[in-house]
Amino acid sequence: MPIHPRESDPADPAPEDAARPPRGDLPRSGPPSGPEPDTGEEPGPDAAGGPAPSEDEHTAELKELEDRWRRALADLDNLRKRHARELERERTSERSRTAAAFLPVLDNLELALTHAGSDPGAIVEGVRAVRDQAVNVLELLGYPRHAETGVAFDPARHEVVGVVQDPDAPPGTVVEVLRPGYGDGERQLRPAAVTVAKRE
User: Fold this and answer.
1) Fewer CB within a 10 Å sphere, N or C end of the chain?
2) 152 in Cβ contact with 196 (< 8 Å)
3) Mapped to the 3 state alphabet, what secondary structure does 133-194 carry?
4) Which of 79, 134, 56 is CA-nearest to residue 102?
5) pLDDT tens digits, residue range 122-142?
6) Tens digits of residue pLDDT in 15-60
């Protein structure tokens, strides 16, 4: 009986297909399409756009700020000391000008005392002249004299030391000045001590 070659079954794999691996097992040559696995490591300094500042840089910046703060304190202290020196110098200068303004008054008083025994009437005139000179000095310094009578009582300029009944004076007016006042407003040295006419 002759032997015929076996006819191939369509279900059987061809000889080439038998040597070829299945399509599902073919290795992929490209990069994986899914997300990268999380390894649990923190991103490096380059991931934030540059290296993180080191501890030495922080220390240098802190020292610079401290130096600037100390320089500012030193400048403020020098300014305070300079202002105190200028204020004291100005006070000393003002005292000197005031004392110098009164030197002629003292000179005239000494001159009046020198001639006290020669003419008593001249002494009175000399003392009155010295008084007027002293009043003028105070006015030049910004403290005018107030010794007016017949004016209305002003509590800002007058200090009442007595109340009298005077038919010739309107009520509430100054009848007599017992002690003159000097200065006005905030530059007042003292108020005038006066007596005031009584109101009926």
Assistant:
1) N
2) no
3) HHHHHHHHCCCCEECCCCCECCCCCEEEEEEECCCCCCCCEEEEEEECEECCHHHCCECEEE
4) 134
5) 778 888 889 999 999 999 989
6) 444 445 455 444 455 445 555 555 555 555 444 555 666 778 888 8
Sort 174 into a burial class: Cβ within 10 Å, 0-12 / 13-18 / 19+. Answer: buried
Closest C-alpha among 182, 185, 184 to residue 193 = 182
Beta carbons within 8 Å of 149's beta carbon, 6+ residues apart: 174, 175, 176, 177
Distance of CA 49 to the CA centre of its chain: 44
pLDDT band for position 199 (50/70/90)?
A: confident
**Stretch (H or E) spanning 85:** helix 55-114
Non-local (6+) Cβ contacts of 143 within 8 A are 182, 183, 187, 188, 189
Token reading at 194: 């006066």
